[in-house]
Structure formats: structure tokens, C-alpha cells
Amino acid sequence: MGLFKKKNELYLSDKQPLTIMGVIMLILSYIVLCTWAFAIIWPLYQMVVSAFNGLQGQYLMLNRKFEFSFRHFEYLFTETLFLKWVVNTIFIAVSTAVLVLVFVSFTGFAYSRYRFKGRKASLMAVMLIQTIPAFAGITAYFTMHSIISALVPAFSRQMMLILIYSGGGIAGNTFILKGYIDSISTELDDAAKIDGCSSMKVYRLIIMPIAKPMLAIIALWSFIGPFMDYLLPRVLLTNPEDYTLAAGLFTLINDFRTLNQPAFAAGGLLTAVPIVVMFAILQKQLVSGLAKGSVKG
Amino acid sequence: MKVRLKNIGKKYEGREEFTIRNIDLEIEDKEFCVILGPSGCGKTTLLRMIAGLNSITEGDLLFGDMRVNKVPSKDRDIAMVFQSYALYPHMTVYENMAFSLSMRKERKKIIHDRVMEAAEVLQIKDYLYSKPSDISGGQRQRVALGRAMVRKPSVFLMDEPLSNLDAKLREHMRVELVRLHKQLGTTSIYVTHDQTEAMTMASKIVLMNDGIIQQSGKPDDFYHRPNNMFVAKFIGSPTINLVKGKIIRGKFVSDDGEVSITPKANDKFALDKFEGKEVTVGIRPERFISRSDLSDTLTCVIDVVEMLGKEKILYAKTKTGQELIISTPGHYVFEDGSEHTFGFDVDALHFFDSESGRRIN
Q1: What CATH number is associated with residue B325?
Q2: Residue B358 forms part of a structural domain
Q3: Is some CB atom of chain A closer than 8 A to the CB atom of B90?
Q4: How far is CA A176 from the centre of its chain?
Q5: Do B92 and B172 form a contact (C-beta atoms < 8 A)?
Q6: How many Å lie between the alpha carbon of B44 and the closest alpha carbon of chain A?
Q7: For residues A92 and A156, what is the distance between their CA atoms, to the nearest angstrom?
Q8: Which of A65-79, A174-188, B57-71 shows the lowest mean pLDDT across its residues?
Q9: Is the pLDDT of residue A109 over 90?
Q10: Which of B16, B48, B129, B297 is least surrounded by Cβ atoms within 10 Å, i.e. has the fewest?
Q11: What is the DSSP string of A172-210?
């Protein structure tokens, strides 16, 4: 017995034992963290509770009694265009993610592996343009859209939105992917070329699988973007049928005619579902460290 | 396949000077050719040009009788082993080895047979289905070799493949590579900065420096008949001793007057033209003699004794501060700070023109 007790008393941590000041600081930092966590979790908790509370009316009232019901969800699906909005958002998000992935693959690979005139200058230009918010170009977007739709009537406002999102995504993510591909040894490219790959195949068969974790992150962020953005769809899309989730749900809290705050909470809750699903799908790919062991160890 | 380089030169984009120029080289079929040189001498550039990874600025590269300057790497029928092995991390060992064949749309059965054959030779059968990250450095090295072997290329290129292995394993792989080369009989071109690797493995060495070939030939020649002072210094460990001096009345006398050597008859003839001119004499550390009946001797004080077991390396200084490295059998006794007299083996003296560095005798 004594032997076991001794084992428990062994100090196994690699850190120095805490001093009194250390203990105080530790307690303080826990207090800060807990407050922070509470500040985030409490509103979320309220949202979840309200969404399922059948006793809530048009306005959200806190501290009221709770009765479990799917009433607000029913309202959302029957009285509003919620399903349409979900479809719109997913369409925009998926198109954006696909466009960004395809283009960033090309640009990131090219910037990382090829030396050409204007390489540095164009990279800098892309970087600088990043600092201007996408919304600043709103008048230009309108003009562009009217010109293009005059030529191609099928070009909808949603497509314009997709182009705006992916345009921004391509610019920013080119840097990220270029940086990641830079860290992959060019000897792999050489080896693949000798093994009989063209440049396209080098990317598709060698670089892309190795850069998968980064591509997954880029895809995820591009996918989440349209869910989060309110301003652009609100301004660009004029027909409620075309709305994305953010723009559509907002009509439930800012327009007096359609006001229904508990339904907004319910909608907000459901918005998380596609993102969570996307996350679950990509989770396997998000594991990094795949490049380990390719070169020397 | 015979590989010929005719007046090859390379200039990189955005550089003023040619990195390498006027390279003429013939590598015979089934030869094991080692390109040796200090870092930055252009040896890797040369190999990458042969591989087709770098373009050739001028000159002709011939495989057999075909000019391959413009042929893409994949059509040159070559295989390359890289310094970092460059194994594809997302593929298993088997897939890595099968990759080049499957890119060439070989039949599955043939691919399998070839991979198994190579795995058998290299003894890597046990971990064919592991990822490169799960195996050790030496094993990765073998896989990289295997990947090159399955193609049965007509030219085998290796870019410092052993530099990432520890000393013991390197020694082992050196022998193994030579054995493999004998077994396969493929023309091999091997780049290294390690003179031991070059001396032990090559059937032909090409020593490069400053973008030009300093000497090419058999390992034996490199040690016993270096073309110039650079070659003499580069090959051999410990380094050759070089003493500057002049030829005075057919005798070599060092600048400080400490060393004077009467060359043997053959050398004397060649040295006649250099009467009164600056000449450097080179003598390998193991070619000093300690006997009592010598005419030309040199007295030095031993600074440091390095005991290597089979031999002792003496770091000695003459009265005027000329440093010498002398190698003696390990069982001889030498004390630090003691004074000794050595003679020279006149059959093993190398005379160089001090100005151009070229060999005289």
C-alpha cells in the first residue's frame, strides 16, 4: 500500500511547481475564461431554449415559463420561405466553395512553382486589393450585373453574388495555398515528372493529396462565408425568393409585418446544421501532418 | 546506354554568368560514374540537366546516338534517386514503387511482378504496405532505390542519395549500391561531395569545381596522379601537404629554405623547364619516411597526435611554422612536442606549377 501511495505523490509534471503568485494568476485566468465562455454560451442557450419554447409569442420574452413545442419550426417551414432560403444558401455556398477550390488550386500551384514576369507584382496587387472590403464595389457590381444580364439573361443576381464571394475567396486563399505548397519539397515534383507526370498530373496526383488539409480548410471557409454574410445579399438580392438564410431570417426580426422572433431563433439554430454537416464531412481531411515523412526524417 | 555530353553549358535565368560551361564528358555503357565536387560547383545542375529537369543552354546531350536536349524527362528512359528520397507521402511503399509504371499504363500483372522483384532484391517486402512516414530513413532510402529500379531505366541518376543516412548505414549502403549496380548493369551517374563515396564506388570519377571539370578518370589516378592542386587537395584524407618553393639547380627548395628535395630522374626532366620558377610540391601524409639513411630530410616538432587506431595522424610544424600532416602506423610512439626527422618518398612526389596549379611531372 505504501508503495502505491508513494507513486501518487511523485511530481510528474515537467513544469516547475506553482508559487503562490502562480496559483493566484491561474485562478484569475480561469475566472476570465469562464466569464468569456459564459458570455458566449448564455445567448446561445437562450436561443435554443426560445426556439423550442411554445409559450413564446411574436416577441422574445425571457424568464417566462417553458413548454416544449415545435411550433416555431412549423411556422418557419409553413409560413416563411425558409426552405427556399436554405436551398439558395447551400447553392451559393457550394458553388462558391467549388469555384474557389478550382481556381485557388491553379493560382496557388502556379505562384508556388513557376517563375514568371510580374509574379511578385501581381501577388502584391492581389494582397493590396484584399484590404478593400468587397462591399465597397457595390455600385460596380450593379453595373456589371446589368451589363452581363443584358447579354446573358440567365445570369441571375445569385450568380453575381457567387462571383463576388469566390472572387474574394480566390484572392485571399491563393496566398494561403501558395504558402502551403511552398513547404512541399519540389523534389516531389521532379520525381513525379521523371515518373511520367505532366504538370497537371503533378498537381492532381501528388500535390493535391498532400495539400488536402489546407484545401479542406479553404473549402470550409468558402462554404461558411455565404451563411455569415448579410450585407451583400440584402443589397443585391431584391426578391425574397432569392434570399440567402442570413438575409431571409433577418426579415423575421426587422420587418414589422413578418416579425417573429422565436422563429428567428429556430432558423438560426437550423442554419448551423449544414455547416456542422460540412465540418463532419471534411473532418477526416482536416488532419494535417500528412506531408510528414515524404522527405528525410 | 552511353551518355555523351558535348560542350554543355548552363546559364540560369536572371544570372550574368554561366553556372557551368564547356563540359565534355563520355560515360560508357554500364559505367558507374561519380560526379564529385564541393558544394556550389554545378554538379547537381549537371545531373538535373541530364535528367531533363533543367534546360540545356548550349551544347549537346546524347543518349546513345540520340540527341535528347529537348526530350522531356519522362521520355528519356531515366530514373532518379533524390537526396531527400522524394517519396510520395500519401502513397504506400507499394504504390510509390508502382507509380511510374502505372503512369505508363503498364498492365497490373507486370507492375506487380516488377515491384515484387525489386522488393525482393532490396529486402523491403515486409513493409510494402506501410506509408513512407512509418518507416526508417534507411528503409526509405531502399524504397527510393526500388522506385527507380522497377522502371528498368537505361540510365540511373542519383543525387547524393546517402547523405541523409548515419555513418554506419552509409558504409553499408555504399557496398550495397555497388553490388546492385553490378547486378543490374545499368549506366549510373552519381553525384556526391563525399570523396570516400566517389573513391569507393566509382568506376569513373569526374571532379568538378567552379563550373568546369578538373579531372576525370579512374579513382586510382585521382589519388596517385592528380591533374592539379585542387584535385590533389580535394582527394585524400587527411589532406595532402603542399609546400611552396622554387627549383634551384634541379633541386626543389622551399621558400623558407627548410625543405629541399632532390627529385628522381624522371621528374627532373620535367622540372628542367621550371628552373628558377615557383613550384609547389605535394606529398601525401603517408609518404613520409623515417629512416636514418636519407639524404633529404626535414625536422619538425609534433603539435598534436590524433590516434585513429590503425594509424596516427601527426600535426607537425617546422621551425618556420610550415604545417605538415604526417600519417604513421598506429603502433609507433610519438610524444606531443617532441622533435622528429622525416624523409620523403621520392616516387610519390607531386610537382605543381604554383602559378597555374597544373601538374608538372
Answers
A1: 2.40.50.140
A2: no
A3: yes
A4: 15
A5: no
A6: 13
A7: 12
A8: A65-79
A9: yes
A10: B16
A11: HHHHHHHHHHHTS-HHHHHHHHHTT--HHHIIIIIIHHH
Q: Are residues A215 and A97 in contact, defined by beta-carbon separation less than 8 angstroms?
A: no
User: What is the pLDDT confidence band of residue A231, given thresholds at 50, 70 and 90?
Assistant: confident
For B86, which of A201, A209, A295 is closest by C-beta distance?
Answer: A295
Tell me the C-alpha distance between B225 and B348, whole Å.
Answer: 9
Average pLDDT, integer, range B21-29: 90
Q: How far is B247 from chain A (nearest CA, A)?
A: 52
DSSP-derived 3-state class of residue B188: strand
Instruction: Please say which residue of B184, B202, B234 terminates a domain.
Output: B234
Looking at the complex, does the CB of residue B295 fall below 8 Å from at least one CB of chain A? no
Instruction: Give me the residues of A, 131-190, that contact B with CB < 8 A.
Output: 185, 187-188, 190
Q: Which of A93, A97, A43 is nearest to A271 (CA)?
A: A93
Q: Are residues B64 and B191 in the same domain?
A: yes
Residue B283 pLDDT class (50, 70, 90 cuts): very high
In angstroms, the CA A54 to CA A74 distance is 11
Q: Are residues B38 and B157 in the same domain?
A: yes
Q: Is B95 helix (H, G, I), strand (E, B) or coil?
A: helix
**Which residue in the block uniquely carries the three cell numbers 508503495?**
A3
Longest dimension (CA), chain A: 88
User: Contact at 8 Å (CB) between B3 and B53?
Assistant: no
Task: Please report the ipTM that was assigned to this predicted complex.
Answer: 0.81
φ and ψ of A293, to 5 deg: 90, -5
> Are B283 and B317 members of one domain?
yes
- A-B C-beta contacts closer than 8 Å: 85
Residue B245, Cβ density class (10 Å: 0-12 exposed, 13-18 middle, ≥19 buried): buried
pLDDT of residue B170: 87
